């Protein structure tokens, strides 16, 4: 999401050399790691989240 926002705001993003397939969250209190496969995320919900972040940061994004 942040990469798309960066590109929409005129940045170059992370480029084609990098591809994020999974995101990991470490829960230190419990000593657990949660792994999310980005490919399984609903594209519509990702677009909605981008729009919400844009509004939160007062950005005029076209998604």
TrEMBL record:
Recorded superkingdom: Bacteria
Protein name: Uncharacterized protein
Organism (species): Cohnella abietis
Lineage of origin: Bacteria, Bacillati, Bacillota, Bacilli, Bacillales
């Amino acid at each position: 999401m942040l990469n798309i926002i960066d590109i929409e705001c005129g940045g170059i993003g992370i480029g084609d050399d990098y591809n994020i397939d999974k995101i990991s969250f470490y829960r230190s209190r419990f000593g657990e790691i949660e792994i999310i496969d980005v490919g399984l995320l609903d594209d519509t919900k990702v677009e909605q989240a981008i729009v919400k972040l844009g509004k939160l940061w007062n950005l005029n994004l076209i998604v």
